[in-house]
Design a protein that fits this description.
The complex is a heterodimer of chains A (503) and B (325).
Chain A (H helix, E strand, L loop, with lengths): L1 H13 L2 H19 L5 H8 L8 H26 L8 H12 L3 H34 L4 H15 L7 H16 L1 E2 L6 E2 L13 H17 L13 H4 L3 H22 L5 H16 L12 H16 L2 H6 L5 H12 L8 H4 L1 H32 L4 H20 L2 H19 L5 H23 L5 H5 L1 H35 L1
Antiparallel strand pairs in A: 1-2
Chain B lengths: L1 H24 L5 E5 L6 H17 L3 E5 L6 H9 L6 E6 L1 H11 L11 E10 L1 E5 L8 H10 L5 E4 L8 H10 L4 E4 L3 H9 L5 E4 L1 H9 L4 E6 L24 E8 L4 H16 L1 H9 L9 H27 L1
Parallel strand pairs in B: 1-2, 1-3, 6-7, 6-8
Antiparallel strand pairs in B: 3-10, 4-10, 5-8, 5-9
The chains are: A mainly alpha (503), B alpha/beta (325).
Chain lengths: 503, 325
Amino acid sequence: MDVLTNLLGGFQTALTFKNIYLCLIGCLWGTVVGVLPGIGPLAGITLLIPATFGIDATGAIIMLAGIYYGAMYGGSTTSILMNIPGESASVVTCIDGYQMTRKGRGGAALFISAWGSWIGGTLGIMGLMLLAPFLANVAVKFGPPEMFALLLIAFILLGSLGKGSFFKAVPMILLGLLVGTIGMDQLTGTMRFTHGIRDLYDGIGFIPVAMGAFGIGEILSSTEETLVHVVHRVRLRELLPNREELRASWGPILRGTGLGFLIGLLPGSAHVLSSFVSYTLEKRLSKKPGEFGTGRIEGVAGPETANNAASESAMIPFLGLGIPTGPAPAVMMIALMIHGVRPGPLFISEQPQLFWGLIASMYIGNVILLILNLPLVSIFINLLRVPFRILFPVVLLVCLVGTYAVNSSTAELMILLVFGVLGYIFRRLDFDIAPFVLAMLIGPSLEMAFRQSLMRSAGSFSIFLQSPVACTLIALSCLLFFWNIYRALRRQKAWESALERGE
Amino acid sequence: MKASVKLVSILIAFLAIVEASIAADYPTKPITLINPQAPGGTLDIQARAFASVADKMLGQPVVVVNKTGATGMVGGLAGAQAAPDGYTLTVGSVNIPNAIEWEIANGRKPPFTRYDFVCIGTFTMSPTLLIVPPDAPYKTLADFIADAKARPGQLAFSSGGLYGMSHLPAEIFVRAAGLKVRHVPYTGGGPSLTAIVGKQVDFSVNYPANTIPLIRGNKVKALAVIGGKRLKSVPNIPTTKELGIDAEYYGWVGILAPVKTPKPIVDKLKDVMKRVVESKAFVDVIEQAGDEVHFLNGEELAKYMEFESAKIAKLYAEMVKETRK
């Protein structure tokens, strides 16, 4: 049992007092940046790099990795309690998580989210430990045609995201796609809708838009509510999920782990995609898809597990090949290089102590996070007892500071506020915000992958048929598309016949 | 009149004293080093390595801040417009002339030019390597060129982004060798490397720090160094110059300060810069990352930028003309 001996060696490294301490610091800081809206794991890691100069490479990577997966635990907190995504992978958690809070089940949502995160995280590390070199070599095969096919499925799933009607989702998707086109086209350098404004060259950032449309919009529309929902002092028992909620979340947690782990291998912001795909999958599989969006525990358990599993597998290309494919692993690699360790394809065999030490520390870190997050549930829930007139201005301030802290850009503050007002208008008109925000994220990537594929093949569509993976996924998306139409027609027929019978 | 002359001379003397005392005290607070590129790139490693060594020499922390956007224009502009007091410096790189010349080639006015900066010096000036998948049927660069010429417009290369520092050397090489190939831009250096390791494209061009670990792990094969001098870390790989192809492009990384920074502070920074690049701690980090330290002092860098800008401007003018056609 080679793996076991290696892992034992890893625990020997990770279980020193110093390394446990560093792991704890990383996890704590990760939770903080996850909870604070705006600041995500990337900014969290970058800020703490100078603090690692004095420690050895193993300690440094243990601490920085702790921030990375720790942020995935914290991200759900503000999504569930205040409808503000604490981190971009937690956008879909807002949909049902916040509704659960409004029904008084916020504690249960937070509990399940931490529990799912732990399972997703721990199983993710196992996958990372056993399959890293193998999966790293598989992941690099996933090129633009395959990416296009996967995003096509995600795009078709967008239509079924909202709780409202199809006709209310479509305008939001179109609007999201339009906003997504703003900025410099990365394949030709052409400026789209930038009107010479330099702040728009890179397009409109996902985080300010998501925070604005969800969070600021929510704050604005809450001011209109005359009914003040007072949260009574809750007993511990009411904080915990009941038996039914626990049972309902097992499936989503396990599916979320598998899905998140696979999607996490893809380049870019895979963890955002993982939570979204998990959410829509759960909605598809549910016997009562109509109840999604009104506070179903499955809509929290699945995505929150998926983004943790994705955060573990996103480290595979970086640890297995030395090529970071996402922004946060890229910064972790820099930190290692400053300590004189250059990860490459031979990293695991050349630096076994470092690799296995990191793996062991991740098991420990996930346990620390679980222990840390469960008592926090009751503290966070009590935050809701702060009167509205005090709580929401503070939240607004935190949103503004968090957005500014990431890029120190005043333009992003403007974007945050503009989309806050838009979010308020959408809410008043009863449009769903999630399809808008996610279309804005998926649209440009979809276009990019499509055009990259055609640039590779000199305009020939055969490139999509040559790859078995792309071919299967495209066939699947066609099926999904026609199934959607069929179901819509059938529903309409049923409705018409009911109408006739009524008359 | 006389009084005003006196006043002016007193003022000048006063300013000179103030200036001297600024330099003598400098720095009295942390120094911000703006990196216009995303965290995780070549610039980031070198800037952070510099920060970790310069900290001790300056007696004040040097904080690297990533201010990304518009392919480096946002950070570059912030650096150019920063107060010229030596407390805000910019990580300069070949990306700065790239971005400026690209704006000019497209008929836009660049928000700042290289004359807005005073050069402090460079850390590195690396050539790129031409890489192909390890099982590609090429043994030498000549094999590769022969194949590309036999199938014009068929081979494709990946880069980390349009007109960025991994696109231009490829473009320069391809033009010098007279090849017709296709370009597929990816979003960043990491995805561009995955593309070549995963055989999504036929070749790619990248810097030693990124490619040498992959060459050692047999994930890619290097055919040539694009430039005139062989690399110490892979001495068996020939240069394009040796092979008779006139292609040269160096990805330099260094430090720039706003042009109005007082001379005593600039001199102090130049001195610190020289000591940092000579220090073992800094050299070790750069070499372990697979790179080589290559120091140009401020004057040399300014002269090189002049030469480089003219070259890039010419290339972009051709490229813009071709896309418009």
